[in-house]
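Quick note —
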Amino acid sequence: MFAAFTALIAFYVSSNVSMQQKMNIDEERAKEQIAITQITLTSENKIVGITVSNTGAIESKIRALYREENGVVTLLTDPSTYIQQGSSKTLNVASLGLIASPNSMIFAATERGVRSQGANEIQLAYENQENFPILQL
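Predicted structure written out below.
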């Protein structure tokens, strides 16, 4: 009887702690907001940099960069990098060998599951760069 009572109390305490942790994660997730603000291209339209801005109220850890092209989503990399609130970080993606496409969108995601809006590779690259070579399609 005592063992059953002890087990019941342990289960209650454990589930209460788990529920509190989930509530904390949900609260933190609500404070996160990230955006891809710049894509840096070479003159050959190779993507070499992706700038992610943290516009939320807390520090965010970027855990994934995705690319969507023709309805297919591909995980590009896990940069596992922190971005302070109100800051931006340019991620070096030159080693991925990505060629910018007008049909592709880039997304970033945090460890708490918050995802940026998609950024069109060509549009964002040219919006943020003056005197950039014209893309030949």
